Protein 1
Amino acid sequence: MSNPTPTFKMVYLALLVALAVAVHTVEAAIPVPVPVPGAKLGLANIITLFAIVLYGYRSGLVVASLRSIIASLLSGTFMGFGFYLSFSGAVLSCLVMAAFMNLYMSRKVTLISVSLAGAVTFNVVQLSLASLLVQNPVLFRGYLPFLLFLAVPTGFFTGLVTIYLNEVAARAGLQLRTLPGVMEQGRVAHSEHNP
């Protein structure tokens, strides 16, 4: 696909932000098995990672930031305790996933590894900030193992969903750069449907 116009990219980013807000809102209603203030499953990272894959880390950062801000405004928690946890976790996990994308582009890790790094960062950052805000370091030491355990299945699931979305985007011609394995699959699928 040729480079998109600024308007085209803005429309797709707006759609990704809207989808991320929707996932964030639904996720907030899902009870987390570990009773840590602000702890979440991090499923909205699916959209953040997909934005990074599709448009790069800057767009992923835009999606992560706007998702946290808009969702907190809708829920009435803007600038509250939960907002700081959500915003910091979303932004820093996005930056970590962006850094791991360099390894992915060089075929050293998979998107699942990128997602796991983001999930671990998301939970560690939120727990660290929660411990700092309530001034209780015992909270960090006590709950860290549980949150790391929680990050493994959620990060794995997020990575699998992103891989699927990535393949769909490749078939639809929405990929803007060559990604390991995905573009090849997209070309094969295209050739099968268009002999």
Note: The mean pLDDT is 79.
Protein 2
Amino acid sequence: MAKKYLLKTLVLFAALLFPFFGLQGSAWPVTLEEAMQSAVGESYVIREQAEFVKVSRFSYISSIDPFLPKFEVYSSYIRIISPRTPISTYTGDLSDTTDSRDTYTFTGTISWRIFDGGERFAKRRGAFSAWEREKEKFKSVREEVLFNIKSSFYAALGAKGIVGKRQEAVQAAQKIYNLIRGRYEEGVAKKSELLQAEVRLLNTKIDLQKAGKEYEKALETVRSLIIIESKDPFDVEGPLTVPSYRGDYKALNDRALQVKPEIIAQQKEVDRLMNVYDQTKAAWYPKIDSYLQQTRQDKQFFPEGRSDAFIISFTFPLFDGVGRYYNMQGAMSAVNAARQRLAETRRTTSLDIAKALKDYELSIDDVSLYGQLVREATSNFNQLYGEYLEGKGDILSLLQSEKDLAAANENYVGSLARARVSLSYLQRAAYIE
């Protein structure tokens, strides 16, 4: 009877664990490096920022136009209603006194700006600063995507490890239950002891099912971040080990303040706004333009009358309201605001690094403590299990020790995953490539 019941429980136990082993055995394994490569290549936000970089690059290229000469053509037809006008007015030929109501004009002009108070240079420098800013933002977006994939990947690895530890807990609970079942049938154990062992076994199976669903959700997060359209099963693969990185706050902070994309991007924004200020300041300077112009005007569709001219124009607004002054004041206020934002970015960067380093150090300490707890819980369980086999221990202590061991194993795996995520966040905060 006991053997028949034992065989039945083993079959049920195997059926319970088969989905998890089957998932891991037949699923497509994905490593962290493969996940990061896929995320960087397929990420929508990275592609979006790459287009913004192209926009700013094209804007910078087009800013060369004001430095180049321009060629313009102008053509018109005029119908004079009254009075008629002598043709000599159009052609310049005084002997031609024929009147006409039709006038055809064609004008070609080559123009080039000689001086504009530095407005063209300021626009070009501003466009270059905007281009550099978008490139730094691209680095920041890429770093954010990599952090998200690393944190979700390690979370999935941790969930996978917890599934394994809960499988071990089910095995341990099953072993205790089988032991008590046999002793109960022999008349040594009490009915209450058998019921307590059965309750613990059912609880471990419930916990295993929950862990399996959490693992599936973690895999879906990874699938979404690496943009996998296929619904074929896949699995995360890789070691979940203790990080060995050690960092010094001062060194990390000094380096981050020099190279972190968010800080450099804000510096480029300050430069861009300074060039906007220079553009507004150029309104106080005169504009000097040169023109080479040819005009043809006649009563014919293809006019023959020709007039050539070279023109130098000087433009300076003596008074055009108060806009020039207040535009300069507004542009300088924008520069000052950007400088304050730069200082705030540097402050928050230093704070993020300090907090990330503390969290990482705490996570490493947790790994060490939970590892020690696993060793002690394992020793305690083995001792109580041996005592119970000899008839010296009680079932409550044995079940509690098994429960403590299962919790210690789960906490240890969780601490490893948190340590890896903490290191990833520290790498992002300090921009450690």
Note: The first helix runs from residue 2 to 26.
